[in-house]
Amino acid sequence: MTIQKKDLGASVLATEYAVRGPIVARAQELEKQGREIIYCNIGNPQSLGQRPITWLRQILALCEYPALMDLAPGAFPADVVEAARAILEGSQHGMGAYSESKGLRFIREAVADFIRERDGISVDPEAISLTDGASKGVQTILKLLLASPADGIMIPIPQYPLYSATITLYEGRIVPYYLDEADHWKLNRSMLDDSLRAACAQGTRVKAICVINPGNPTGAVLDEQNIAMVLDFAREHGLSVLADEVYQEDIYLPGDTFVSFARVLDAKRMRDVSLFSFHSCSKGFLGECGVRGGYFEYRNVPDDVAEQILKLLSVCLCSNLPGQVATYAMVHPPKSGDPSYELYNREKTSILEEMKTRAVLLAEGLNKIDGISCNPIAGAMYAFPRITLPAGVTDEEYCMALLEETGICVVPGSGFGQAAGTAHFRTTILPPTQKLRQVVEMLGAFHEGYVLVKH
Amino acid sequence: MTIQKKDLGASVLATEYAVRGPIVARAQELEKQGREIIYCNIGNPQSLGQRPITWLRQILALCEYPALMDLAPGAFPADVVEAARAILEGSQHGMGAYSESKGLRFIREAVADFIRERDGISVDPEAISLTDGASKGVQTILKLLLASPADGIMIPIPQYPLYSATITLYEGRIVPYYLDEADHWKLNRSMLDDSLRAACAQGTRVKAICVINPGNPTGAVLDEQNIAMVLDFAREHGLSVLADEVYQEDIYLPGDTFVSFARVLDAKRMRDVSLFSFHSCSKGFLGECGVRGGYFEYRNVPDDVAEQILKLLSVCLCSNLPGQVATYAMVHPPKSGDPSYELYNREKTSILEEMKTRAVLLAEGLNKIDGISCNPIAGAMYAFPRITLPAGVTDEEYCMALLEETGICVVPGSGFGQAAGTAHFRTTILPPTQKLRQVVEMLGAFHEGYVLVKH
Q1: φ and ψ at B5, to 5 degrees?
Q2: Cα dihedral A133, A138, A144, A150 sign
Q3: Which domains are assigned to chain B?
Q4: Which of chain A's residues have a Cβ under 8 Å away from the Cβ of B239?
């Protein structure tokens, strides 16, 4: 055949994406054979029974088929109809036309209002681009930054493998900085310095630092000081900052709040550090993974670079319009007193309360297992527990054995990166609470048996 | 600022995408100032008043908000309800979950049925991937093929600039082959041979040939012999084939039919040439550009390469679910006798008849203008007329002047490529018929005046 694996590029072959790797493939195989599989490998809430938020789905349905306003007038609350009308009018051509490359201006304005209200800062809708999920935005900015094979991007270890995969694919260098497992997976300055020093010693030209807050897979939530420290570090070394803030709604510990990089940048009046912030409809309490909606916002980016970003986006014309509309529904929720408010609030609260319960249940449960230890799950949707393994056993082998024996599908720590000599896995907190209890029990029994047998 | 244009990669800076370039930017500026602009720059039918197909929108609305089945039972024909139910059941988790990386199996099976029925050949649903429009599929396969800076891809001149932009972005070499303007923009073997010979002389390792059929921007429709010739050429030189077939529904001349590359490959029992075929919801009579739905199918691709394709798709998880559902609606239309059939057929026929009328009107009108000549528009949505310009005038200048004087927005031929010493522009056939008549008249008056003044 005219296409052969041996002719493919080294960067394509080297790319890895563990969240959908061989263990998941094996899980699907087992499922086809009739085994019950508990998918804890991926942050895909609705695949585990989470219900969609009615507000968002009603708006989408009306935008797709506006005749429903007349055909089924009783089926939609007045504020839903109003939102759909506003979107259709703002779009000029409805859902069937390509929008501007960076997305409908009307929806970018709504995103700007949302950020303005969240952070109390000024926002330019022209600095916002709507994207197919956060992933496509991250890929666009990484492509922009990686100019030569010696260019590197600092990414946390452990990280979400979108970053390592994309940097590899675009032939840049991964510059790992370690998160401090002993201090709740927080960032610390000396670990950033170490990372940069090591990269420079190898001739790497470090262009940017990525931060995931709340953390995936770590569950850590950064405070203002931590963020300020990263921004100071970036300024000192001339780095741009990528802030992956897709889990901003998922904060579980009392006293914690989400602090955005944009807000701290503004508070520090930093005009020199270029910041790219990412958000998504797939996470939070919406969990609308299928619609592939999201956006990025940039700050301190020169106009001639902004033009290049726009050009990159324009090659694929625009992000999908349903995703753009879902983003509108995310940033423009019903307000207290609106007809949809009560249902919206009930759905939102129930999902977030459930997540909070499970975050505590899972971390506590894991810590009761001898040989497993887990930081508190302060945010996001995951636990990344450390496991003590018998000598010579890899975390891939462990996770595969766990799958074969229990049907629980998790991702080995190696897929996210981990300090040498340590082993972890990532599990989501998404199975329904009762099922998650069962997961913890099965994990405990499995771990004990596995360690015994392998010793 | 930490990001500067001077630090960006040469490939990013060199990328061009004329369909949304400076002339369109100027048009948007003029529009903001209150000028009426006739957008003929982009194949975006619903932005010019084309109505969506009800069948597709009803299915999308029901899938987004299935409660409508009970809330508004009278609003949806039985076959729409049945289709939506089948999709929701086939998806297992509805529209809110990530699907498999290559898209929902249930929808891939429907695509396989569609190809099987269209071409009378056997089809493997596992060889089909659902993508965000055809563009993302094309980019994935180009990334796969371009392994080193010496790798080249043959693309037609004129071409759709997705190809040149993506090859530049991924640091491959564009290997142009010229379409024969004197023979209705058909391909011919000697022009392919010339192109390959020139590339080899420059040390380029040619990996594949792209063909756009029906042609964008040329409007040409290839017949079976033409396609067989390309496949023979590919086999002789060990090339893979990318067949961009997004305009397969847009065929206007009596006697012409769409012939797919897959069908000819199968008829020739070719087992060695790797073929990638692309389709989209954005074109045809659907014109659903906003939903970003599409698919590609491959043939004669080894399993270990298929694994790499799947891995590349998995990095961004999956294409958007509304786009997947729109693809289902495209490949699974109502059948004669079904409740939705009559309306569907009426909408479809009326759009295609309109397009046919405009294709004739536009080509004839352009040919009546002294100094403009245009091949018959046999397919797709565009004319690519040749224009005689005064010495020293570029087609960019011409198009900009046309915009300033008339408000007509077209794209200069240089954005698509053209033989040295010739000048063209691309215009769509999408403005409503009455408006298109006006476009032709204004073009005639403008051209005459422009040539006089510049001489």
Answers
A1: -55, -40
A2: negative
A3: 5-50+354-454 (3.90.1150.10), 89-331 (3.40.640.10)
A4: 2
CB contact under 8 A, B302 and A5: yes
Sign of the Cα pseudo-torsion (B221, B223, B225, B228, in order): positive
Q: Chain A 151-180, CB below 8 Å of chain B: which residues?
A: 162, 165-166, 169
Q: Which residues contact B229 (CB under 8 A, 6 or more apart)?
A: B187, B188, B189
- How many Å is the Cα radius of gyration of chain B? 22
* Minimum CA–CA partner of A136 in chain B: B316
B315/A17 Cβ within 8 A:
yes
Residue A416 structure tokens: 């996210």
| A385/A390 Cα distance (integer angstroms) | 16
Which residue does chain B place closest to A311, by CA atoms? B17
User: Can you tell me which residue has the tokens 């046309």?
Assistant: B402
CB-closest option in A75, A165, A316 to B135: A316
**Among A55, A9, A44, which residue's Cα sits nearest to residue A342?**
A55
Name the token pair of B64: 């987004």
Q: With beta carbons under 8 A apart, name residues in chain B contacting A287.
A: 96
Q: Please tell me the total number of residues recorded for chain A in this structure.
A: 455
Per-residue pLDDT of chain B (455 residues; tens, 9 = 90+): 999 999 998 999 989 887 777 898 899 899 989 999 999 998 999 999 899 999 999 999 999 999 999 999 889 999 999 999 999 999 989 999 999 999 999 999 999 999 999 999 999 999 999 999 999 999 999 999 999 999 999 999 999 999 999 999 999 999 999 999 999 999 999 999 999 999 999 999 999 999 999 999 999 999 999 999 999 999 999 999 999 999 999 999 999 999 999 999 999 999 999 999 999 999 999 999 999 999 999 999 999 999 999 999 998 889 999 999 999 999 999 999 999 999 999 999 999 999 999 999 999 999 999 999 999 999 999 999 999 998 889 999 999 999 999 999 999 999 999 999 999 999 999 999 999 999 999 999 999 999 887 76
The verdict on a CB contact (< 8 Å) between B1 and A60 is: no
Regarding beta strands A151-157 and A205-212, do their DSSP bridges make them parallel or antiparallel, or are they unpaired?
Answer: parallel
The pTM is what? 0.95
CA distances from B269 to B31, B225, B265 (A): 54, 15, 6
Contact B93 A46 (CB under 8 A): yes
Write out the two tokens for A103. Answer: 């997305």
Name which of A64, A168, A231, A271 to mutate to probe chain B: the one with the most chain B Cβ atoms within 10 A of its Cβ: A64
To the nearest whole angstrom, how far is the Cα of B15 from the nearest Cα of chain A?
8
Residue A311 CB neighbour total at 10 angstroms = 20
The 3-class secondary structure across chain A, one letter per residue, is CCCCHHHCCHHHHHCCCHHHCHHHHHHHHHHHCCCCCEECCCCCHHHHCCCCCHHHHHHHHHHHCCCHHHHCHHHCCHHHHHHHHHHHHHHCCHHHCCCCCCCCHHHHHHHHHHHHHHHCCCCCHHHEEEECHHHHHHHHHHHHHCCCCCEEEEEEECCCHHHHHHHHHCCCEEEEEECEHHHCCECCHHHHHHHHHHHHHCCCEEEEEEEECCCCCCCCCCCHHHHHHHHHHHHHHCCEEEEECCCCCCECCCCCCCCCHHHHHHHCCCCCCCEEEEEECCCCCCCCHHHCCEEEEEECCCHHHHHHHHHHHHCCCCCCHHHHHHHHHHHCCCCCCCCCHHHHHHHHHHHHHHHHHHHHHHHHHHHCCCCEECCCCCECCEECCEECCCCCCCHHHHHHHHHHHHCEECEEHHHCCCCCCCCEEEEECCCCHHHHHHHHHHHHHHHHHHHHHHC
The C-alpha atoms of residue B196 and residue A281 are separated, in whole angstroms, by 47
Does A42 contact B at CB distance below 8 Å?
yes
